Predict the structure.
Amino acid sequence: MLEVKEIDVFYGDLQVLWDVTFEVRRREIVVLIGANGAGKSTTIRTISSLLNPRRGTILFQGERLDLLPPHGIIERGVVHVPEGRRLFSEMSVEENLVMGSLYGEAKTKRRDTLRHVYELFPRLLERRKQMAGTLSGGEQQMLAIGRGLMSLPHLMMFDEPSLGLAPILVQEIFGMIRRINGEGVTILLVEQNVHQTLAMCDRAYALENGRIVLSGTGEELSANEHVREAYLGI
Amino acid sequence: MEVFLQTLVAGILKGGLYGLIGIGMTLIMGVMGIINLAHGQLMMVGMYITFVCFHYLGIDPYFALLVSMPALFLLGVAIQKYTLNPLIEVESILPENQVLMTVGIGMVLTEVARFIFSSDYKSVQTSYSSSSFFIGEISFSLALTIAFFIAVAFTLFMFWFLLRTDLGRSIRATAQDKDAALLMGVNAQRITILTFGIGSALVAAAGTLLMPIYYLFPDIGGPFTRKAFVITILGGLGSTVGAIFGGLTLGLAEAFGATYIGMAFDDMIGLVIFILVLIFLPSGFKRITKV
Ligand SMILES: Nc1ncnc2c1ncn2[C@@H]1O[C@H](COP(=O)(O)OP(=O)(O)O)[C@@H](O)[C@H]1O
Ligand SMILES: [Mg+2]
């Protein structure tokens, strides 16, 4: 469904990704693990066209995403739930959700999707008139996910959704991601929370210093010597 | 007491128009993160269009809104698209350079106006230009009162637009977090162009509404750019609501200054406020995110 092929990405003259290649198949949960600064966010920001690869291509259902402007990505059914939530903090919860459904089918089905998101996250319904900036960390992450769902995505990319959340909320967020996957949405998840994500994914890739160094199923990576040492501290 | 009330009324009526000037500037500042130092000059262009409509075509200033606003919308769109946005593409160029560009545009507009219309004072003398009516002992300038209500109507419309439409929300979203807006499918570049167009159309409306009671010359833009700046910073702390508050504050300050200090000081008062604000409220430059 998504094929990232041999991309090199730079910030100015500074190269941060080298020859990164991976794929996400329909209905999978694929995890990209890696330490801080490995290039995980850069990778999904490039898929979202916020950055352009200097070399390589990105295909989604056969179409070149890397040739599209950033605002064209969500219309293709690819949505990015960014690191740090990036909500519109001075808009209400409901307005943030509406912002996820600006175009096409998502817009025409806005009311139904809104109802669905409120079913998934009753807390958001309770706080629908509240400014997003006043929500707690966990609620903000739910809102960021809800906003993404409003676009009726085929592929959802999450950048460290567990960052800064208490363990119980992390469980809840991961549970929700699995549930969304169960509803037919393909998932690309970027995480440092390696233990839990390897347990819930279909396949995983490890990114180190801007290069993919390992790939395999969740079990394979969990059992891998290097992963156990570098990420799981075993 | 009567003088006080009279001054209050004059200040509020003027303040409504200033609010309209301020909202345009505020929107541009919020979305682009720059101060548009050609704002008053754009208003001047709107005023000349009104003047031409009245003098050569016999169009009443209130109908001239239908000409000046679309014309300035297009001019604003062109300025953003062809002069400001290309500067963003060049990575080494700082946002300050966009501000400098607006200064240059302001000068060009002024000189073009001087070339076409000379430096002479122009005015639009309508049948109602000097009419007024009384409520109790207080007199209301008819033209200024009409202008006030039209300005209020435009302001309310802008609120509805920003709060209730997808396009308006996209403008606010772009001001709050541009990358997040891009991820939601907002074409941020188009939003900057649209915002500059809207801001220009609003200030043109203010200029047109002022025409029946004001005089016009090419250099009138500069003082109004300063006023717009003061309004934006005063209110500003950036919100659109703040711009209305800032507009009223400046309108009242000018009116009371003219009554109690002297007519000649009305522009100076704006400048004094401007300096005081820069000294005591430098945080007024905060990004504009609220409505
Ligand atoms: N805007 C930027 N400009 C320059 N370098 C950056 C920028 N953002 C990230 N980097 C660098 O790129 C590398 C990868 O960053 P990132 O993709 O954010 O890593 P991760 O998400 O895996 O923590 C890091 O070395 C980081 O310092
Ligand atoms: Mg990151």
Summary: Confidence is low (pLDDT under 50) at residues 284-289 of chain B. The two ends of chain B are 36 Å apart (CA to CA). The first helix of chain B runs from residue 2 to 32. Chain B touches chain A through 20 residues (CB under 8 Å).
